[in-house]
Amino acid sequence: MKKFLMMIGFVAIAAMTACGAGGDDVPVEDDTPVDEAPAADEAATGDFDATAAEDIYNRSCIGCHGQNLQGGGSGPGLIDSGLSVEEIVHVLEQGQGLMPPQDLEPDEAENLAKWILAQ
Ligand code: HEC
């Protein structure tokens, strides 16, 4: 008789667990569009942190390259320079002509380069 009651208890727990599993499907479905959104952005514009890039630009570049990357002070405009991300990173790391090398982390330089190309 005890065994029979234990069986009923087991079935009840199994049924509750099954319901719980059914409920878990909802957040999984919610995640799907969130996962797809960054992938689509990446294909269109490259993946970069605009806030971080602007921060560095305003601190380190604006004096020579102008408020809107149009050039000004002593540097050329950076819009439509025809440079790749790698070439911009190279300029930032090595400097070029009158531009001194910039003291940035490699990922900061790459993020900034992607942002410049998106302007
Ligand atoms: C002290 C002034 C100065 C600062 C600060 C400066 N630049 Fe420059 N930059 C220049 C000058 C001058 C050139 C042109 C160099 C040359 O080709 O003779 C240049 C060139 C460049 C180029 C290459 C443009 C091309 O068409 O070849 C890029 C890209 C660039 N700068 C990005 C930046 C970024 C991003 C920053 C901030 C992290 C920055 N620069 C900070 C003066 C500056």
TrEMBL record:
Stretches assigned to the Cytochrome c domain: 48-119
Keyword Electron transport set for record: yes
Keywords, comma-separated and alphabetical: Electron transport, Heme, Iron, Metal-binding, Signal, Transport
CC per GO annotation: membrane
PROSITE patterns: CYTC, PROKAR_LIPOPROTEIN
Gene3D superfamilies (UniProt xref): Cytochrome c-like domain
Molecular function in Gene Ontology: electron transfer activity; heme binding; iron ion binding
Listed name of the protein: Cytochrome c551
